[in-house]
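Worked Example 4.2. Consider the chain below.
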Amino acid sequence: MYWSKAFIPTLKETPQEAESISHRLMLRSGLVRMLISGVYSYLPLGFRVLSKIENIIRQEMNACGAEEFLLSALQPEELWVKSGRDEEIGEVMFRFIDRRGRRLCLGPTHEEIVTDLIKNNVFSYRQLPLILYQIQVKFRDEIRPRFGLVRSCEFIMKDAYSFDLDQEGLNRNYKNMLEAYKRIFKRCGLDCLVIEADPGLMGGSLSHEFMVPAESGEDIVLRCQDCGISVSYLDEKLARCKKCNEKLEKLNTIEIGHIFQLGTKYSKIFQANVLNQQGSQSAIIMGCYGIGVSRLIPAILEQNNDANGITWPREVAPFEVVILPLEAGSSKIYETGENIYNDLRKSGLEVLFDDRQEQAGVKFKDADLIGLPLQVILGKNFIKSGKAEIKLRRNGYSSLVEPENIRQEISKLLS
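Applying the procedure from the previous section yields the following structure tokens:
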């Protein structure tokens, strides 16, 4: 991609509405723009990041044997009335009456809808176990939207649902999902805490939260400074670790995932039963597994930044390499940069070529701000020695390389 043809509206100054490090970086680097409070548009760089996160999630979900599907965001309110959660969720739910007089809502989640689907289509134990997942927009009328994508009214979630005949099957799927979540968050470059949690409105028995330490986080977690065990601040009013008696430190965190053993809470309400091996009806045993897909972007930024901007982990970076020809008037530098650009693209790398007629300082600041993992710089060193400078954004490591060896050097640095 040529920068001059791309839509990357970077900002020199921090917008007034920015409330946190991640919110500031999302706006300044041109990842998103606010439409109204709690509602954001994803610009091309932000959409590329979002797509990469979704692809990681799909790979790990598919590896667990889950099948992707897509449920409607528009839902009949009667299913929520049936479960009783219409009153529990209350004013957080967007509700309205259509021209036919039907009471509808925009889905804040999909447990009721998926249980109704399974009730009408799964009848025998031979159809189990089953795991379905979707990546879809959810809607919640937040009283106080905050921190950009961290707490918004419209957001993207991955929600998966497992259906088993017995508790043993649920335990197996639950464990597989817990490990898959650890892999997903690690691939996204996140240092994540796993905490046994209260199921809350979702119901069921066992539940685990996945929390990312961040200054702007609204959830508080207590972590042992010695053994690293973490507990919810709401569940444990302890000053010291149960395991090693060391002092617990208080951390602000962002919740990025939550998994639940729902058991038969929803299947009994909706009479989602199957014929078991004994020929009698059994309520399906359910699990639910959620990831805040759009929330992962600010979580990643909270943990991957410095004074100059973003420092993207490679797997989720919008591009892997940016090429910076700095001497605007030098045709040799521009031609060399373009040759490197074409060569790297042929090798399968995602490359941004800064062909803008801008001063070197502007290009450096923008490159550091958007934070691509690797920079190829063609400037004074190239004029003197004929070598390009390759620089790692995260740690500042740089080396001078002959243009013909750049592809090999980049492959080593990005491996």
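The longest strand covers residues 248-263. DSSP finds twelve helices and 23 strands in the chain. Compare this with Example 4.1 before moving on.
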